[in-house]
Design a protein that fits this description.
There is one protein chain. The protein is of the alpha/beta class. It has a single domain, classed as Domain of unknown function DUF4159 (Rossmann fold). 33% of the residues lie in helices and 13% in strands. Strands 3-1-4-6-11-10-7 form a 7-stranded mixed beta sheet. Strands 2-5 form a two-stranded antiparallel ribbon. A two-stranded antiparallel sheet has the order 8-9. β10 and β11 form a beta hairpin. The longest helix has 21 residues. About 13% of the residues have low confidence.
């Protein structure tokens, strides 16, 4: 049996087995290495994570909304080109592929600072938590929380562009993030439309500019309505299974990130981004696109609760896992 077929079965079995487990739904259960045999690649990865945790404790973390006040720091320049080694479902049960695309930039600067390959530590945390829940074989990403700002060559699981349809077919789940306006070519639009109609799933997540900019969200909303018609981007009700197929987030819906260090200071903005509610594109009865305005990926980066507190990390990770399991079983 091919790995992709195996994972579809195992994900469904995991949903059935865990559906009544209240402790796991609340995110309180922790899995230890004593419960199952730990393969060598996982032990190596855990050793790397311990090293990164030590580095984290000794470094000054730059908040995602910009550097602290003080002397100016040298600008961090996003890499102009990027490659990733091939990673397929023949090798791994799940591969988190990012979409590389050209951004239009913001007034006064060419682009960024948070472009399509920002903060690989968020991918690393999501993959680690996913593997702990359904015992699948994922390709570890060697990054930790906010470090580094941009992925190095080969650091992410996989990358795709929308210029070629065939590589897209290899991945049932794509992740696309950025903070700027963008525009796709006619070829890219056609390929994305065909990928989604053929059964693919796309998570589009606004990497918020400052505290409240939603340029990526607005570009994505306009793009989807060009592809699938006016009114095709619809609210996703909280009763939809992406909010309760594994973790029950029906009371939360799309999580809002709240700055932990700003609480108690009502004169400053408390929330990160603008919560327009969970929206998406349905093709027949299947949710094909999940569009987020609240920067879920920034939540994934904060495993220590430095910026958003423990709830921000927990809820965004849980929604990420729910979305992956939905994509793999539909």
């Amino acid at each position: 049996m091919e790995r992709r077929a195996f994972l579809k079965l195992s994900a469904g079995a995991a949903l059935a087995a865990l559906s009544g487990n209240a402790a796991l739904r609340s995110g309180t259960r922790k899995t230890t290495n004593r419960e199952i045999g730990v393969p060598e690649h996982q032990r190596q990865f855990e050793s790397f994570m311990r090293e990164m945790e030590a580095r984290f404790r000794n470094m000054q973390v730059q908040p995602p909304w910009g550097p602290p006040s003080g002397p100016p720091r040298p600008a961090v320049v996003a890499p102009q080109s990027y490659t990733a080694p091939p990673a397929t479902h023949d090798e791994y049960d799940f591969v988190l592929a990012r979409v590389q695309f050209r951004e239009a930039g913001l007034p006064g600067r060419a682009k960024g600072p948070d472009v399509w390959n920002v903060r690989p530590g968020g991918d690393a945390n999501l993959l680690r938590e996913l593997a702990a829940v359904i015992r699948c074989h994922v390709k570890p990403v060697q990054a930790f929380d906010w470090d580094p700002q941009y992925a190095r060559n080969g650091q992410l699981n996989a990358i795709v562009t929308l210029e070629d349809l065939e590589p897209l077919r290899e991945y049932p789940f794509l992740f696309m993030t950025g903070e700027n306006n963008y525009h796709l070519t006619d070829t890219e639009k056609q390929n994305l439309q065909e990928y989604l109609r053929a059964g693919g799933f796309l998570l589009m997540d606004d990497c918020v500019v400052g505290d409240g900019g939603d340029f990526f969200y607005r570009s994505s909303h306009d793009l989807l309505e060009q592809l699938f018609g006016r009114g095709s981007v619809r609210p996703i009700p909280r009763e939809h299974e992406v909010f309760h197929n594994l973790y029950d987030l029906r009371e939360t819906g799309l999580p809002t990130l709240v700055y932990a260090r700003r609480r108690g200071f009502p004169s400053v903005r408390q929330t990160h981004g603008q919560n327009h509610g969970a929206r998406g594109v349905f093709l027949r009865d299947r949710l094909a696109v999940f569009l987020s305005s609240t920067d879920l990926h920034c939540g994934w980066c904060d495993s220590h609760g430095v910026e958003w507190g423990p709830d921000g990390y927990r809820k965004t990770i849980q929604l990420g896992i729910n979305l992956i399991l939905y994509a793999l079983t539909h």
